[in-house]
C-alpha cells in the first residue's frame, strides 16, 4: 500500500505530540507525594569555638528541600513545618557557633498516598556523645502535621493507648539491659525506673507510617548516663489490627482492606 508524503507528515506530527504529552506526564508534579532533594552543607567553625575545640571544626548537615506539589499553598505549609529551626530548635548559625553538633541528617520513611513521613537525627558531643531524633508525619492534602485525633476515633484513644502500653510493659519485663552486668545499677533500681514508664494517650501523636502498618514511637526521656536502660520505644501494629480504632474518613483508612 502506498503511503503519501502528507500521511507521513501527519504521522510524524502525531508522534511528536504524543512524545510531548508523555514527557509532560512524567514531569508533572504529583498530588500524593513530594520531590525531596537533599542539600548538604559543611559547617566550618572559626574563632574561639575552633580554637577551644579544634577537633570539632566541621559538622555535616544534610536536610531536605521539598518541592513537587501542584498545590502551592499546601507546598508552602509543608516547607514551613520543615523549616530548619523547627527540627531541633537551632539554626545553622547557632550550630556553627557551638561545638556540639557533629552530624545532622534525615530519613524518608514514607512519601506516597498523600503522606510524607520523615525522621531527623542529630548527633553531637559535650561531656558525652548523644543522639536526638525528631519525627514528622505530614498530610500532603492539607499541609499539616498528622495527630492522633485526625486519624483515630476519639472514643477509642484510651483503649488504643492501652494496647500500645501493653507492648511497652512486655518489653520492659522481658528485657535485661547489658548495664546490669556491669554492676553500675541494681535490678531494683532498674525496676523503679521502668515502673514509672507508661504509654499515655498523648503519646499516640507520634507514629511512623509504612505500607503495612504504623509504628508508635515512645521516648522514655532518660538522661544520657542511664540512656542504655531505655526501652526500644517502637511498637508496630498492622492496619488490620488498627481498623477498629481508625476513622473511616481519615488519611489512614485508605490502607484498610
Write the layout of secondary structure elements.
Layout: H1 5-27, E1 35-44, H2 47-52, E2 58-67, H3 72-81, H4 84-88, H5 92-96, E3 101-112, E4 115-125, E5 129-139, E6 144-145, H6 148-151, H7 157-174, H8 179-182, H9 187-195, E7 207-210, E8 213-217, E9 234-238, H10 239-242
Parallel strand pairs: 2-3
Antiparallel strand pairs: 1-2, 3-4, 4-5, 5-6, 7-8, 8-9
Bin the helical content.
25-40%
Radius of gyration: 25 Å
Broad shape:
flat
- CATH architecture verdict of the largest domain: 2-Layer Sandwich
What CATH calls the topology of the largest domain is Heat Shock Protein 90
Q: Give a quick account of the main beta sheet: strands, pairing sense, barrel closure.
A: 6 strands, mixed
Total count of helical runs of at least 4 residues: 10
Query: What is the terminal separation in angstroms?
Result: 54 Å
Low-confidence stretches: 10-28
Spatial order of the strands in the main sheet?
1-2-3-4-5-6
Order of helices and strands: HEHEHHHEEEEHHHHEEEH
Number of strands: 9
Summing up helix and strand content along with how strands pair, one would put the structural category as: alpha+beta
Mean pLDDT: 87
Amino acid at each position: 500500500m502506498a503511503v503519501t508524503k502528507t500521511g507521513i507528515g501527519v504521522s510524524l506530527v502525531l508522534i511528536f505530540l504524543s512524545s510531548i504529552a508523555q514527557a509532560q506526564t512524567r514531569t508533572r508534579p504529583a498530588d500524593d507525594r513530594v520531590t525531596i532533594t537533599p542539600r548538604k552543607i559543611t559547617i566550618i567553625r572559626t574563632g574561639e569555638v575552633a580554637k577551644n575545640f579544634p577537633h570539632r571544626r566541621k559538622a555535616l548537615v544534610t536536610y531536605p528541600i521539598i518541592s513537587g506539589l501542584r498545590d502551592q499553598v499546601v507546598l508552602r505549609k509543608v516547607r514551613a513545618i520543615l523549616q530548619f529551626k523547627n527540627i531541633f530548635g537551632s539554626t545553622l548559625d547557632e550550630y556553627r557557633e557551638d561545638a556540639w553538633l557533629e552530624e545532622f541528617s534525615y530519613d524518608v520513611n514514607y512519601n506516597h498516598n498523600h503522606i510524607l513521613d520523615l525522621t531527623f537525627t542529630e548527633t553531637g558531643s559535650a561531656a558525652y556523645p548523644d543522639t536526638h531524633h525528631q519525627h514528622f508525619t505530614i498530610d500532603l492534602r492539607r499541609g499539616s502535621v498528622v495527630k492522633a485525633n485526625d486519624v483515630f476515633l476519639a472514643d477509642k484513644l484510651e483503649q488504643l493507648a492501652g494496647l500500645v502500653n501493653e507492648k511497652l510493659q512486655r518489653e520492659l519485663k522481658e528485657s535485661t539491659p547489658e548495664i546490669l552486668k556491669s554492676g553500675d545499677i541494681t535490678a531494683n533500681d532498674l525496676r523503679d525506673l521502668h515502673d514509672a514508664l507508661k504509654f499515655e494517650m498523648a503519646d499516640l501523636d507520634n507514629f511512623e507510617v509504612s505500607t503495612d502498618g504504623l509504628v508508635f514511637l515512645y521516648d522514655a526521656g532518660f538522661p544520657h548516663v542511664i540512656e542504655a536502660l531505655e526501652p526500644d520505644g517502637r511498637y508496630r501494629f498492622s492496619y488490620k489490627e488498627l481498623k477498629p480504632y481508625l476513622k473511616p474518613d481519615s488519611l489512614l483508612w485508605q490502607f484498610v482492606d
